[in-house]
Amino acid sequence: MKFLIDENVASSITKGLRKDGYDVKDIKELKMFGISDKEVLELANKEKRIVITYDSDFENHPYFINIKHFGIILLKFKDQSSRRVLEAILSTLKSKIADKIPNNFTIISDAEIEVFK
């Protein structure tokens, strides 16, 4: 799996995923600050990457519900410490749920992991 990290996600998440062997690009490293959510998704689609974001617009905006994508992971944590979030992402990616993430909308939260088509 390849990922595109939205600018609202800590760089330490990017580094942690890379350290674990994942192919990751980060909007901040690409110096694409302030691009629209639509542009984030278009870039991810162009490179066949799964978006990782805290931006709930990806969940609520009709554009994102009806467009084909390679996957979106929405993070919903009360404790947004990088360590906690990275542990949850890596745990999810190493679980049986990982096979369902590509091409779907996934929410990883404190309470649960949900995958939607």
List how many beta strands DSSP finds.
6
Average pLDDT metric:
92
Lateral strand order in the biggest sheet: 2-1-3-4-5-6
The coarse overall form would be globular
Which percent range fits the helix content? 25-40%
Summing up helix and strand content along with how strands pair, one would put the structural category as alpha/beta
CATH 2nd-level architecture: 3-Layer(aba) Sandwich
What do we call the CATH topology? Rossmann fold
Q: Main sheet, how many strands, which sense, barrel?
A: 6 strands, mixed
Number of discrete domains: 1
The oligomeric state is single chain
CATH class bucket = Alpha Beta
Distance between the termini: 17 Å
Separate helix tally? 5
Beta-strand portion reads 15-25%
Radius of gyration: 13 Å
Describe this structure in words.
The protein has 117 residues and is α/β, with parallel strands linked by helices. Helix 1 runs parallel beside helix 5 (82-93). 26% of the residues are buried. The radius of gyration is 13 Å and the shape is globular. The longest helix has 12 residues, at 82-93. It has one domain (2-116): Rossmann fold. The chain has helices spanning 11-19, 37-46, 57-60, 62-66, 82-93, and strands at 2-5, 23-26, 50-53, 72-76, 105-109, 113-116. It has a 6-stranded mixed beta sheet with strand order 2-1-3-4-5-6, sandwiched between helices. The mean pLDDT is 92.
